[in-house]
Amino acid sequence: MTKEIPLILAVDDELMNLELLSFIIKKIDLHFVGVQKSTEALSAIKNKQPDLILLDVTMPEINGFELCQLIKEDKDLNDIPIIFVTGKQKVEHKVKGLQLGGVDYVTKPYNEHELRARIQTHLELASAKQQIEDQAQKLAKDNALLNHMFSIIGHDLRSPLSAIKMQLDFILRGIIDPKAEDFSSTTVQSLSLTSSEAFNLLDNLLGWAKSETGVLTTLKEAVNLQNLVAQTARLQQLGFTNKHISFRQEIPEQATVLADFNMLKTILVNLVSNAIKFTPKKGTISVTAEETPTHWKILVTDSGVGMGTAQLKKVLDPDIHFSKKGTEEEAGTGLGLVLCQDFLKKNDSQLQIESKKGKGSTFSFSLAKA
Questions:
Q1: pTM as predicted
Q2: What is the dihedral angle through the alpha carbons of 199, 203, 205, 206, rounded to the nearest 10 degrees?
Q3: Which of 35, 239, 245, 264 has the most CB atoms lying inside 10 A of its own CB?
Q4: 157 and 203 in contact (C-beta within 8 Å)?
């Protein structure tokens, strides 16, 4: 049922019939609304959103069958169960009412106990139907989540792990000489970058799965931005070094926000990692903070490839895991920015993006001061 106490809306041009229905229905503690003019019924139904409709057939201007058809043609109303309560007793009338979408057909004069029983039965059926539909939607969402996770595990996570395994095999077989002068600067650095890529992907995957399944709780606390950004920069140092990117942070010492520490860390790691991915060699990345009376605005700016309007729309759509290779063919899943948007929402914020193709991008969000 859509409300704590279900609402029954009856349409009948006879006031006496509406008064009788009101008396019967209120005896079982249900809310009741009566509409005497069939021409006003559709707007009343849209406004009240009843749990069940009792509908007379013989009415001037718009009869019950016509009104039923109008209700069933409206996508916002067509799930509301309709019981015809009418003096028309012919079989063809009953068949027509049911064919038009009515769930039941009660003829006058009716027994009030029977009518109440039918109303309660159809309310319970409607409630059960809604629960089944909700469960079906949840199962479909869970299945889509599992399928996407398996796809990422089977392809995106397997790729860096396979690369690590191959390089280690080459070392063991003597194809790569660990005593070579460039071993540390090439092989070890490559292994470190690839393992970091796999770890970040796994971290995002777990965070996304927890968020999607509702097991993740938001625990807000005072977080010093300067310390967290410095920690983020250390985690991404190898990425800066590998692409010779100049990194700058300008965060005032007093910049402290109220946020979930782990979520904010994930957001910053993903935004900086994303900036590295789409910034060419010898580019620049900065993380800065701007103060307002109530918030701190955090900005991650890069001198990367930027985005056009069409790509921006895809990036900001939480239902699209948009992914594009980086300037050095770095792969991605599109999970990072989806996770950022979800975590920011849980911290009462949202992701803003300003970008120009060929000129770079700025990703920003605001958090309340602690």
A1: 0.56
A2: 130
A3: 264
A4: no
**The domain containing residue 228 runs over which residues?**
217-370
Is residue 44 pLDDT above 90, yes or no? yes
Contact 275, 237 (CB under 8 A): no
How far is C-alpha 354 from the chain's CA centre?
23
- pLDDT 10s digits, 87-140: 998 999 999 999 999 999 999 999 999 999 999 999 999 999 989 998 998 888
Report pLDDT digits (tens) over 283-335.
999 999 999 999 999 999 999 999 888 888 887 776 666 677 888 877 666 67
Q: Is 143 inside any structural domain?
A: no
Q: How far is CA 97 from CA 12, 26, 109, 267, 308, in A?
A: 16, 26, 18, 56, 55
Cβ-proximal residues to 110 (8 Å cutoff; 6+ apart), any chain? 85
* Residue in 85, 15, 83, 7 with CA at minimum distance from that of residue 45: 7
CA–CA dist 85, 150 (Å, integer) = 53
Measuring CA to CA, how many Å separate 5 from each of 48, 94, 115, 120?
13, 29, 18, 12
pLDDT band at 2 (very low <50, low <70, confident <90, very high): very low
Q: Name the DSSP class of 79.
A: T
| Whether 6 contacts 48, CB under 8 Å | no
Cis peptide before 6 (omega within 30 of 0): no
Task: Give the single-character DSSP code of 5.
Answer: S
Alpha helices in 34-111, H assignment, sequence order: 38-48, 64-73, 91-99
Euclidean distance between CA atoms 171 and 164, whole angstroms: 11
Domain boundary among 69, 100, 134: 134
Q: Residue 137: how many CB atoms within 10 A of its CB?
A: 10
State how far the Cα of 149 lies from the Cα of 134, in Å rounded to an integer. 22
Euclidean distance between CA atoms 349 and 347, whole angstroms? 6
Tokens representing 256 are 């402290």
Can you give the CATH number for the domain in which 331 is found?
A: 3.30.565.10
Provide the 8-state DSSP code for 195: H
- In angstroms, the CA 233 to CA 56 distance is 71
The phi and psi torsions of 276 (rounded to 5 degrees) equal -60, -45
Which pLDDT value is given to residue 156? 57
